[in-house]
């Protein structure tokens, strides 16, 4: 009897459309998996339609996004592997901690509750949203210059601008406000069950040049899992920025994640 391929769900982060995962989807399909990249609630089918319908994304928070993917997972024939970038990495950790995923890869993951480092680069990257309290219930688009600082700082200006034009979409402000206030609230949607022992394996990936989620933030998240006996691994690409899943070097990251999954027997 032929074994069904393991489903993989790719989860994008703020400001990037799910179509940016297309090369990863083709790569993982060729490796024998069943990959998909559904968008966040409110995302339209493609980049242009999403840009033209930004209000559909407004006021969507971490809980809304997590429930959206939990519902998608509920319709799967088998428990998937989840691979998330940026805030998608936070969502991936929540889904794993809730027992909804067989394994998770969190790439430059959004800051979870309990992570204390707050580097200046991260503060500056979040200012397009956090500088105005009213943005919490709105969508916000990055400028080309803001994208260059937050995503494309380790790239040439030409490549950064090309990625900006190709993949950027408006993003809801609520997740950033929720994550930034997480350590000041007893209950937060950015909280993840880091002590669970019976969950699947987790890989956290950091970019050493990342401004949006600096490597020190990813390392702090990794340390929070220290009381769990479940597999938790950390890997840093020292010369990569926040664009590492969609820029010219995406294959290096994809190869590493695939090899890691094989080491987990998945």
Known CATH architecture: 3-Layer(aba) Sandwich
Q: Which strands sit side by side, in order, in the main sheet? A: 2-1-3-4-7-8
Q: Classify the helix fraction into a percent range.
A: 25-40%
CATH superfamily: Alpha/Beta hydrolase fold, catalytic domain
Stretches where pLDDT is under 50 for at least 5 consecutive residues are: none
Distance between the termini: 18 Å
Describe the structure.
The structure is a single chain. The two termini are 18 Å apart. The radius of gyration is 17 Å and the shape is globular. With 266 residues, the chain is of the alpha/beta class. The protein has helices spanning 22-30, 47-52, 62-74, 87-97, 120-130, 144-150, 157-167, 174-180, 215-224, 250-263; strands at residues 7-11, 34-36, 81-85, 103-107, 139-140, 171-172, 202-207, 232-237. The strands form 2 sheets. Strands 2-1-3-4-7-8 form a 6-stranded parallel sheet, sandwiched between helices. Strands 5-6 form a two-stranded antiparallel sheet. Helix content is 37%, strand content 13%. It contains 10 helices and 8 strands. The model has no long low-confidence stretch (mean pLDDT 96). It has a single domain, classed as Rossmann fold, CATH 3.40.50.1820. Helix 3 packs across helix 4 (87-97). Strand 7, helix 9 (215-224) and strand 8 (232-237) form a beta-alpha-beta unit.
């Amino acid at each position: 009897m032929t074994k069904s391929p393991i489903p993989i769900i790719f989860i994008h982060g703020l400001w990037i459309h799910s179509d940016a995962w297309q090369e990863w989807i083709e790569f993982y399909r060729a490796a024998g998996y069943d990959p998909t990249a559904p968008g966040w609630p409110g995302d339209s089918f493609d980049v242009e339609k999403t840009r033209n319908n930004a209000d559909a994304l407004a006021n969507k928070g971490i809980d809304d996004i997590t429930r959206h993917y939990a519902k998608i997972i509920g319709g799967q024939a088998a428990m998937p592997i989840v691979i998330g970038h940026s805030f998608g990495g936070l969502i991936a950790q929540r889904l794993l901690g809730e027992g909804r995923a067989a394994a998770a890869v969190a790439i430059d993951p959004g800051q979870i509750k309990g992570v204390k480092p707050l580097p200046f680069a991260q503060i500056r990257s979040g200012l397009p949203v956090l500088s105005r309290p009213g943005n919490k219930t709105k969508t916000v688009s990055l400028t080309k210059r803001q994208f260059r600082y937050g995503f494309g700082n380790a790239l040439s200006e030409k490549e950064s601008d090309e990625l900006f034009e190709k993949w950027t979409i408006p993003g809801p402000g609520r997740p950033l406000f929720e994550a930034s206030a997480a350590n000041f609230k007893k209950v937060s949607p950015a909280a993840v069950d880091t002590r669970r022992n019976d969950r699947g394996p987790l890989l956290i990936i950091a970019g050493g040049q990342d401004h949006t989620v600096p490597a020190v933030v990813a390392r702090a998240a990794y340390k929070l899992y220290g009381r769990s006996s479940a597999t938790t691994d950390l890997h840093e690409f020292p010369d990569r920025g926040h664009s590492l899943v969609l820029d010219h070097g995406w294959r290096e990251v994809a190869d590493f994640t695939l090899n890691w999954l094989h080491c987990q027997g998945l």
